[in-house]
């Protein structure tokens, strides 16, 4: 027999890799003795072969999904053998018996030797679920049944010679260990250009027989020790499981085979395929597992890597768009081929039916729902009989010969040259257009310079103060200077001083000391809570944004350091009919801004190793999780309380797969509220619709800190853009809602309503609006990250006015809500000034932890000096962060605060991607007219 790899066949148009969804099975275990003695009730039931149902009259009324469907579900009375036979067998054995063999040929391949057999080069079986749900119990059985069947297959196929190799590893506290070696040193993961990701120096035992393999598996389980030294896989007792696996275990069985008759001959080829058995450690809540010390630390590592796995699965379920963070944990890195790679994969999600575990069970099912959507592209090895192979090659030869004999018709080559000519013409035209545009741009540029000079002469204070605005407030064109001057300050030499890493939360402290780059994990309970549900929350949020995203190609206006004057002047140029605002120019403008931001604030963190970054992003993910329960009022990303968790668990596929929460679009009704129900804000009753808007806007913006990827700024922008669109819808163009007039009066901006429409007036108005907003941010304890993004993104372009309006209205609403003692904004979410204060405090703590990561020692020292913090004082980072954004009347202070927070949340890095955000344009074409609309309407 000869072997052909799927890829080769693919080229010839016959066969190739096979795309298929991950097979997802759910296994419910019976109530354990302990659960029975605690009078636990079983709330879950398999109602048919594919649906598991939650039966609890109380929860049913909560509106959460009750039925979940998967490829196959197994009830508590199903044996592991049944799970294997009806669930995993087909995939696990496809590495030897091949899919066609299984389905069409059964064991008659030897008889029907002309038919090819497809062998998949890699298969994997995972067990996923909360601690004590039965993963190890299930995987042990599945592994044994698979291996037994593989041996059975080998015995029945004597025409081939098989070699089996076995390796085993565990990932314990983010260290990879060889389970077949007594050496407990952590192994390195390497990227091999040919083999992909490999674990260096991992023992690979050649298996002599079935007994040998069983012995090797026993070593992994710790039943036998290697060289009588260490017990193997880390197992420990928790209150939920006496024999809890504290590590992820990955077993790999490689099966190599060659046709016996060709053995030792030139044309002999060896076929290799592997099957992975993955027993993941279980997610656990610290409170339930009652873990402390080592167990708690293990639990944190377990949860963190499972979080990354959840993230990867979630992203893959959305169709592999964008970057998949496989490198965020060793688990996902090693399992990359099994997750959306070239393996056939089955995931068995195990559940405890106990009521006390309902939340964890739901999270497991949400993970399963996501996993169902993931597609892998399994590589196919094809083995043919010699006869079939010869036939295949003859056919291929004949096809190539006929292609050679009848070359492509002349007409098609004519078409080719015609197409080339057409393209040449197009290129010529485009070059001409570029030349024209460049001319126009240069012309506009010189006009702008003229106008700038004019304004410089008009605005003597600006001119005299080197473009400073009157008072403490500086113009935006000072940004670059301020950034560099601040940077300069950091670079001045200072004495060394020990820094205190003390963190109030003991768990965070433990973790922080454990892994320096890691930061806030929140309270143990929160942190150890399973997180998949949150990933689903994110999915929904993403979906919402998707549905609101503007068509790509609109011009953007997110110029972080675009000069104030520029913004105004651009409008003038526009009015004069110049094509000043062409896309090309805008891109250059943005690029310049970003470059200036990036260059003034070198990002030291970029040099830090992958692991640090990964761990940080993982940690940040915990914060992200909290966004679901974010404090609605202050925009912080910290949760008001965990009780909201289950309420906000999204619907499963059984209901609406990842659909948005019903009424998600009602969030804009804050605007309705202000227009149509103005009395509500006065009588103090709550408006959940209005809160929806605040909640979403807030959580969108606050989400950014928890996500170091570009999307976080995009999300922020999308939220604002969304709000703006709704706002415009509500009021139309050129309308000033009555209550906004009142708001403006309230904040002392009533003069603006009657002012003229010139760029200079706008500059003054912008200053006033911005200052009012900054004060309100402080009053309402708004998230520092939100303040920073907003402050940096809206820097005085007239087209920003609508965003300032929306923000001002939102903040005024919050302030009024607080002052009326109107706490209960949305059912279940009690919001008070105190809770917003608490959330802000937590955000400051988190930012203070980031200080160490984002600023070098030297920079921090300079910062302390600059902010009057003694270098020998304790908790210096916390002190510094607690000062940020507090002196609202001092523009320098605000500017520096924004710079520091921007650096902490990697704004400059994200800023580099702002170009990509043109699709989320701040300034829709109509905005140019709209921007002054509300002011002009007041003049009428
Ligand atoms: N389907 C089942 N039928 C009967 N008993 C089961 C079943 N599944 C699990 N058990 C029992 O439940 C207990 C916990 O199972 P197991 O250790 O496999 O859980 P786990 O999910 O691997 O937990 P951890 O993540 O903590 O390692 C064990 O005593 C096991 O024998």
Automatic annotation (TrEMBL):
GO MF assignments: ATP binding; microtubule binding; microtubule motor activity
Against Gene3D superfamilies, the record matches this protein to: Kinesin motor domain
What species does this protein belong to?
A: Carnegiea gigantea
What CDD domains does the annotation carry?
KISc_CENP_E
Where is each Kinesin motor domain found? 21-374
Per UniProt, the ranges with Basic and acidic residues bias are 464-480
Query: Which keywords does the record carry?
Result: ATP-binding, Coiled coil, Microtubule, Motor protein, Nucleotide-binding
**Coiled coil location:** 383-454
Q: What does the record list as GO biological process?
A: microtubule-based movement
Instruction: State the protein's name.
Output: Kinesin-like protein
Q: Which SMART domains match?
A: KISc
PANTHER family referenced in this protein's UniProt entry, alphabetically: CENTROMERE PROTEIN E, KINESIN-LIKE PROTEIN KIN-7F
